[in-house]
Design a protein that fits this description.
CATH topology of the largest domain: Alkaline Phosphatase, subunit A
CATH class of the largest domain: Alpha Beta
Number of helices: 12
Strand order of the largest sheet: 6-5-7-1-8-9-2-10
CATH architecture of the largest domain: 3-Layer(aba) Sandwich
Number of strands: 16
Largest sheet: 8 strands, mixed
Number of domains: 2
Shape: globular
CATH superfamily of the largest domain: Alkaline Phosphatase, subunit A
Structural class: alpha/beta
Distance between the termini: 44 Å
Length: 482
């Protein structure tokens, strides 16, 4: 047994002792003879900030997600921890910045051996030594389940069943539905070719099958508190949806609109249908009012290219993989039991790591101080309770990689309304005031040297704090090879 795993075992033993102590003292949970709240964490893949009706889309139809927004608080400055999926997923599970755990790119990554910079070796998995969100809930008496996409490690040792989940349906190495001609798998349509999801004769569309699994889990476990990761493969490519839904949106296309991909719109509706079925099942089990629901995305919407346009994030600039707002700002909704001010909108910037401490606090759970001090997220409970007592100096992003959508290595920091972007290839900077310029059209770098200096100092201090890895000069660089 290596030293890292020994340390994790010691931590888990400490957590177990803490839970026993809390039960005996009756000051963490069940101290009022009430059931602990359930948790349903809905993570959509590649869903853009503008892909939801209540966030401004006038083409995609999402009545069920809109219902969540009316029952909770919607964050309009909600951010993913990274502009690609795996780092954000790891940050949700650990409560840490991707740079701190060196999981800074999607697991396989995009190889550019002749690019100007050589990217660092990053951790292509979520280390099992991390005390995950699922483990924190499990050690506090919760039944835990992961249903859907995982994409946090190639080897099975890094999959959900080894990261704190009692059940895993559909979570494995792949970051998108398996479309393998040799295996006969067809992406979103059955057969699925997923080693953690046995194909059934009744299977048709992947999202519906995953929703069936989620509803069955809720039915079977509604007597005791549960933590359910419902992480959809939608709306990630390949673009595939049922014909009747595609036909519906084809008829609704407006050539003057920004969003007009009928297949993608149908995929968004498939996702919304899944959310609706989860809500209905919670209502049927009479536990909806005692369930915390999180709804968000792992990065901004995928734009695609001119020939194969996917979505449009306007008024946000660019999309998935890019450090402009379209690549990192995402819809973010939290519904909690006994909320006084339902249907509120918050414009306070939040980020993926915040869900870890927020969910623990909402559920009344505790962690040892040795673990808590390593968490980068901040509890959003003051915002949820409308107490206006939420404070954070700044948000940071670090992506020392290249992306298929054209992005090159970068970092960024946001403090208040100001956002500074650093480009590593030429060590240049851009500065934007997001309150006045949400589309990031006016670079204010030269007009605000003091603000640039302030944000650069914050960014460089953060580099040191998280021990960030950096790209280096590439000896194989060839400008003639793309």
């Amino acid at each position: 047994m290596n030293k890292a795993n020994q340390i994790k075992i010691q931590i888990l033993i400490g957590l177990s002792l803490l839970v026993i102590l809390c039960i005996s003292c009756k000051n963490v949970f069940d101290n009022t003879n009430t059931k602990k709240p359930n948790v349903v964490f809905i993570l959509v893949d590649d869903l853009g900030w503008k892909d939801i009706s209540c966030y401004g889309s006038d083409y995609y139809q999402t009545p069920n997600v809109d219902k969540l927004a009316k029952a909770g608080v919607s964050f309009f400055n909600g951010y993913a921890a990274c502009t690609v999926c795996s780092p954000t997923r790891a940050s949700i599970m650990t409560g840490k910045y991707p740079a701190k755990i060196n999981c800074t790119d999607w697991i396989e990554g995009h190889k550019k051996p002749y690019a100007k910079l050589k990217v660092p070796d990053w951790t292509m998995y979520m280390d099992t030594t991390e005390v995950t969100l699922a483990e924190a809930f499990k050690l506090n008496g919760y039944t835990t389940a992961h249903i859907g996409k995982w994409h946090l490690g190639e080897d099975a040792i890094y999959w959900p069943e080894n990261q704190g989940f009692d059940m895993n349906k559909g979570g494995w190495s792949k970051g998108s539905p398996n479309r393998n001609v040799a295996m006969g798998s067809k992406g979103y349509f059955a057969p699925f070719g997923n080693p953690r999801l046995k194909d059934l004769p009744s299977d048709e569309y992947l999202t519906e099958r995953l929703t069936n699994e989620a509803c069955e889990f809720i039915k079977a476990h509604n007597e005791k508190p549960f933590f359910l990761n419902f992480w959809l493969y939608n709306v990630h490519t390949p673009l595939q949806a049922k014909e009747e839904k595609v036909n519906k949106y084809t008829a609704l296309v407006d050539s003057s609109a920004y969003q007009k991909n009928a297949v993608y719109a149908a995929m968004v509706e498939h996702m919304d249908d899944a959310v609706g079925r989860i809500i209905d099942e919670l209502e049927r089990a009479k536990i909806l009012e005692n369930t915390i629901i999180v709804f968000t995305s792992d990065n901004g919407g995928l734009i695609g290219n001119k020939k194969n346009k996917v979505t449009d994030n306007y008024p946000l600039r660019e999309g998935k993989g890019n450090m402009y707002e379209g690549g990192v700002r995402v819809p973010s909704i939290i519904v909690a039991p006994d909320m006084i001010d339902k249907g509120t909108k918050s414009y306070t910037p939040i980020i993926s790591m915040d869900y870890y401490p927020t969910l623990l606090e909402l559920a009344g759970l505790e962690l040892p101080s040795s673990i808590k001090k390593e968490i980068d997220g901040i509890s959003l409970l003051p915002i949820i309770n409308n107490e206006n007592a939420y404070e954070r100096e700044a948000l940071f992003w670090h992506y020392p990689h290249y992306h298929t959508q054209g992005a090159k290595p970068y970092s960024a920091v946001r403090k208040g309304d100001w956002k500074l972007i650093r480009h590593f290839e030429n060590d240049s900077y851009e500065l934007y005031n997001l309150n006045n310029d949400i589309s990031e059209e006016q670079n204010l770098l030269n007009e605000n040297p003091e603000k640039v200096l302030e944000l650069k100092e914050l960014l460089f201090k953060w580099y040191h704090k998280v021990d960030a890895q950096f790209p280096t000069e590439n000896p194989k660089y060839d400008p003639n090879i793309k």
